[in-house]
Design the sequence.
């Protein structure tokens, strides 16, 4: 069953993400980041204000936004999905200690060669409304085998 085109433009409820030291340490450990500022417990490492590795934003904008898509009964998403791409537009660096309010929106949904390609954009702002980063993820939904 095809995804619901009427969901393009739908804005999901915002969620809050606090960029904690442990998040960054875990990210560094599992992704092989070698910069010791992100990996150890020294007092001057992973401190508040340290800019995080840019791809860390996928941790902020990925799982929570994707779970909203997958649990949206009006969209009709299913588990035959692949991650097709990711990009970030930074208005300012993301730093340890930041609190971000992230709002996911479905911005595009199209068919291509039997796949349904969905784009979700997640705008992450500080609580005062200052823009920090926008993430765009492309998901490819694969049709059920006939």
Sequence:
């Amino acid at each position: 069953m095809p995804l619901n085109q009427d969901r393009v433009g739908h804005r999901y409820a915002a969620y809050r993400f606090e960029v904690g030291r442990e998040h960054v340490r875990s990210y560094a450990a599992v992704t092989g980041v070698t910069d010791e500022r992100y990996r150890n417990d020294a007092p001057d490492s992973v401190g508040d204000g340290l800019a995080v590795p840019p791809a860390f934003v996928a941790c902020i904008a990925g799982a929570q936004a994707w779970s909203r898509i997958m649990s949206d009964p009006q969209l009709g998403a299913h588990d035959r999905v692949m991650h097709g791409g990711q990009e970030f537009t930074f208005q300012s660096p993301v730093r340890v200690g930041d609190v971000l309010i992230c709002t996911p929106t479905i911005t595009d949904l199209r068919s291509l060669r039997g796949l349904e390609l969905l784009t979700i954009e997640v705008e992450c702002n500080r609580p005062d409304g200052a823009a920090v980063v926008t993430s765009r993820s492309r998901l490819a939904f694969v049709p059920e085998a006939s």
